[in-house]
Amino acid sequence: MKTIIEPFRIKSVEPIHFNTETYRNNALRDASYNAFLLHSDDVMIDLLTDSGTSAMSSAQWAGIMLGDESYAGSPSFYKFEKAVTEITGMPVVIPTHQGRASEKILFSITGGKGKVFISNTLFDTTRANIEFSGAEGIDMICPEGKLPTIPAPFKGNIDIKALESYIEKNDAAHIAMVIITVTNNSGGGQPVSMQNIRETHKICRQYSIPLYIDACRFAENSYFIKMRESGYADKSILDIANEMFSYADGCTMSAKKDAFANIGGFLALNDPELATKCRNLLVITEGFSTYGGLAGRDLEAIAIGLYEVMDEHYLQYRIRSIEYLTQKISAAGVPVMLPAGGHAVYLDAKQFLPHIPVDQYPGQALVCALYIKGGIRCVEIGSLMFGKYDENHQLIPAALELVRLAIPRRVYTQSHIDYVAEVIIEVFEERNQIKGMKITEEAEILRHFTAKLDFV
Questions:
Q1: Who's near 331: CB < 8 A, 6+ residues apart?
Q2: DSSP conformation letters of 278-347
Q3: Which of the four pLDDT bands, split at 50, 70 and 90, describes residue 2?
Q4: Is it true that the peptide bond before 339 is cis, omega within 30 degrees of 0?
Q5: In the chain, which segments carry CATH 3.40.640.10?
Q6: What count of other Cβ atoms lies within 10 Å of the Cβ of residue 143?
Q7: What's the burial of 171, exposed, middle or buried (CB within 10 Å: 0-12/13-18/19+)?
Q8: 323 and 228 in contact (C-beta within 8 Å)?
Q9: Which residues, 6+ apart, have CB-to-CB distance to 194 below 8 Å?
Q10: Within 13 Å of residue 20, how many CA atoms lie on the same side as its CB?
């Protein structure tokens, strides 16, 4: 097979600000060893997130100039609505300024004390909005999803047996909804199979539990289904997405991921009564129902991006790019999530730094080491992000200690990715020199965004 080339040409560029290890040491110290607090000008390769960091296409930029900024009833909204409806099949489309705003609205209405939300794995803001409502979030990732370096085709699946067991032992009326995140971000960017979604739908119908999809990376998940699941090889991405959404009662999406947009999101629903409640809350918190906190230009860009992301040439390139980096560092012995996920490479910090105990946050230590060594910014997805405290203020660690290097869409070239691989391998070779960390200051909710740390 020939080299899979980028299915685009570069039309505009922005500079990378080069610096030295000494400079980065000082910058990270000034940021209290939290990559979120770094100035982006001090970052050479920014893999902190793939959210809102994509390069938009010429068609999207042209659409921005067509954006209509009418307060109500903008034609830009109706283009946006049409795109979302054609993909999800859901009749009610509510725009929001980003995914967590959709979650805040939905969970404020459906959550509350005594309610439970079950998921394959909840991401940070999803869990935070659930807990902020007074409800509890429970992760039920499949057994193979708990083994980072052992390959399996659909490690993002929800554990069907655990779900059935929980429902049988508890009152289903207290379960607000089941949420399937596609792809499973906290679980290593791993895909969810159509069979798993179908089986979850069947259980939810049996017990009258709503099923929702966190659709941030719906196209990437659909492509994995096409490549890995029997019966889907000849189906289009749109057809696969249509079937996937047909099993759900609603979905939330951050359009900052698979719609290539720099801002935006939506809530799509089948239930008109719930939709009315959501729209009422939207007007209070986000804006009128046809703009939801977004400019008309953003609605235009999202509508175009939702179609562009389903191009199979793009998806082949996208998935292969992640696979390329994964294979390169795995061949050098680096413990990495296998197989490659859809939007990011996930290092297994627990195996990478076995000398650092979990209560010294090995993932965050690795994040700091990668920045100092090569100016690469990434994020810990482990006990700093998801850890809790018991009644004695002792850490209850996360299930996995991962470091995510999220690849922005259509931004970096192969030489950038080769550089990232070289830095990771160099840090791995010097891993015994890396020290553990301690938290010196933290917030009660989403502490990883603003926490201050130091070395032990």
A1: none
A2: HHHHHHHHT--TTTTT--HHHHHHHHHHHHHTT-HHHHHHHHHHHHHHHHHHHHTT--B-SS--SSEEEE
A3: confident
A4: yes
A5: 58-308
A6: 12
A7: exposed
A8: no
A9: 225, 229, 232, 240, 243, 244
A10: 2
Q: Are 382 and 402 in contact (CB under 8 A)?
A: yes
**CATH number among 3.20.20.150, 3.90.1150.10, 3.10.580.10, 3.40.50.300, domain 21-50+311-455:** 3.90.1150.10
- What's phi and psi for 314, nearest 5 deg? -65, -50
pLDDT over 80 at 1, yes or no = no
| Residue 130, φ and ψ in degrees, nearest 5 | -65, -50
From the number of C-beta atoms within 10 Å of its C-beta (0-12, 13-18, 19+), residue 108 rates as middle
- Portions of the chain given CATH number 3.90.1150.10: 21-50+311-455
φ/ψ of 376, rounded to 5, equals -95, 125
Task: Find the helix packing angle between 99-110 and 124-132, rounded to 10°.
Answer: 30
Mean pLDDT of the chain: 96
Residue 277 has φ and ψ, to the nearest 5°, of -65, -40
Q: What is the rounded distance in angstroms from the CA atom of residue 453 to the CA atom of residue 397?
A: 17
0.85 cut: is pTM over it?
A: yes
Strand extents, DSSP E, 334-451 = 344-348, 376-377, 379-381, 388-389, 395-396, 402-406, 437-441
Amino acid at the residue 398:
A
Q: Is the dihedral of CA 320, 325, 330, 334 positive or negative?
A: negative
- Nearest alpha-carbon partner for 321 in 199, 237, 223: 223
Q: Which residues, 6+ apart, have CB-to-CB distance to 264 below 8 Å?
A: 95, 96, 97, 98, 254, 255, 256, 294, 298, 299, 301, 302
Tell me, what amino acid is at 242? Answer: N
Instruction: Tell me which of 3.30.450.40, 3.40.50.300, 3.40.640.10, 3.40.47.40 is the CATH number of domain 58-308.
Output: 3.40.640.10
Cα–Cα dist 140/159, whole Å? 5
Task: Kindly report, residue by residue over 174-199, the tens digit of the pLDDT.
Answer: 999 999 999 999 899 999 999 999 99
Three-state SS for 211? strand
Task: Give the three-state DSSP class for 253.
Answer: strand
- What does residue 212 show for φ and ψ, rounded to 5 degrees? -120, 155
Reported as type and span, the H/E element at residue 95 is: strand 92-96
Are 176 and 210 contacting, i.e. CB atoms less than 8 angstroms apart? yes
